[in-house]
Amino acid sequence: MSLDVMSGEGGGDGSGEGKGVTMRVEVDVPKCVASGQCVMIAPDVFDQREEDGIVVLLDEQPAPELHADVRESAVVCPAAAIRVVEK
Ligand code: SF4
């Protein structure tokens, strides 16, 4: 039997993510220009509406391993529609 523990330690790529850092993601939907950048970078967190490509936030509080991708999405978003709050 194995214990299903999400240890995540010792991954080895040296990105010293803080422990217990909470990320909260907000999208300003009216600003979105449907470029899809965020969806390409962080598909677990962002999706696009079928009809017009406008962003859909899938995960308001993404897991730590997704934080780097979410930050990058916010940086590359051409409409600056993604806001990331970290505590
Ligand atoms: S990157 Fe920005 S503009 Fe493009 S789909 Fe995502 S939120 Fe919308």
What does this structure look like?
- The chain is of the alpha+beta class.
- It has a single domain, classed as Alpha-Beta Plaits (2-Layer Sandwich), CATH 3.30.70.
- The protein is 17% helix and 18% strand.
- The chain is built from two helices and four strands; from the N terminus they run E-H-E-E-H-E.
- It has helices spanning 37-41, 67-76; strands spanning 23-27, 46-48, 55-57, 82-86.
- It has a two-stranded antiparallel ribbon with strand order 1-4.
- The longest helix has 10 residues, at 67-76.
- The radius of gyration is 15 Å and the shape is globular.
- The N and C termini lie far apart (36 Å).
- The model is unreliable at 5-16 (pLDDT under 50).
- It binds iron/sulfur cluster.
- Residues 27, 32-38, 46, 48, 55, 77-79, 81-82 line the site of iron/sulfur cluster (SF4).
- It holds the Pfam family Fer4_13.
- Residues 1-20 are annotated as: Disordered.
